[in-house]
Amino acid sequence: MSEERRAAVPVAAPGASPDAPHPGGLERSGPTGGSRAPRPLLLAAALCLLVLLCLLSIAVGSRQIPLDQVLGALTGPHDTQVGRIVWDVRVPRTLLGVLAGSALGLAGAVMQALTRNPLADPGLLGVSAGAAFALMLAVGVMGMTSLYGYVWFAFAGALAASVVVYAVGGLGRGGQTPVKLALAGIAVTFMLESVTRGVSLVDPQVLNRYRYWASGSLAGQETTTILQVTPFLAGGAVLAVSLAPALNNLALGDDVAAALGRRLRRVRMLGALSVMLLTGAAVAVAGPIVFIGLVVPHAVRAFSGPDQRWLLPLTALLAPCLLLAADIAGRVVARPQEIDVGIVAAFLGAPFFIALIRRRRLAEL
């Protein structure tokens, strides 16, 4: 924390519970003194918005189908042409958008809390690129076709890329800073993409898969594949949410968190594990999609405050809203063709990233 914010945080009372929000920071109103919206109401509104966007994702596509036919396909037989489009294409695509969006949003929120870095995002810090690179090696070089075979490579690639980025970002004077980590992540991402492109040129089949991984897409996955990756995403999500009280303590600084009984190494290892599971599994089925984990936690923090016990569930609900909205836009604006959701998400998130870079107080959250 900056000196101004550290001085503004009262010292925790002796014997305070480590799970309790720290005084004066997590439960207070916004910086202007106005009251925030009730958090249960925010959760209910986020859930309603997610349900609405799921229905829109099923009803709207690159092919125009009357709404009554879509509703009839949802409630009627599946063997009609409209029924096959709805159940074999749009429903799996929507389900994947919900799972991948929640995973990327939670991963970004946990990374920001662990590092107190407002620019932390799986796509920006090279985690997604590492997972995609390892997947290309597993599928293209080793010939793996089963998700249970190559998803472990995604986890290993995500972890290795994270280690490299944080090592490079800590070099030089001043150690790690948000901008240095972001630059290191961008450099590692470009390096991995270049190597992956070189490997893909050797085999046309690998090239086709690389095009999918490079852009990020919710199309083309079967329901069985999505169900196979769901346990990894669920495990990472449960682990991330369970770390919320510890992440609240970390916001006070390492010394205070340790005084409150937190084992910092254990918290960071579990946080890294959750990010690895969430990012690796999401990239395995949707490809590297950037900015979802950057934009949504910041937007949620503005409405709910920094308490991770509320921020993480809200992010898990609102991140897929952004991803589904981007996917719907990509299907509509280029009819009868489609724009991959990764491209639309980058188009929406890039201005937000530039605005964060230009902020004066960017040292830490």
UniProtKB/TrEMBL annotation:
Residues 1-33 are annotated as: Disordered. Its main location: membrane. Belongs to the binding-protein-dependent transport system permease family. FecCD subfamily. One of its GO terms (molecular function) is transmembrane transporter activity. InterPro entries: ABC_BtuC-like (IPR037294), ABC_transptr_permease_BtuC (IPR000522). Pfam families: FecCD. This is Iron complex transport system permease protein. The chain crosses the membrane at residues 41-61, 94-111, 123-144, 150-169, 181-202, 232-252, 273-298, 310-329, 341-358. It is a multi-pass membrane protein. GO terms for cellular component: plasma membrane. It is found in: Cell membrane. SUPFAM superfamilies: ABC transporter involved in vitamin B12 uptake, BtuC. Residues 8-19 have a biased composition (Low complexity). Keywords: Cell membrane, Membrane, Transmembrane, Transmembrane helix, Transport. It comes from Actinomadura hallensis. GO terms for biological process: siderophore-iron import into cell.
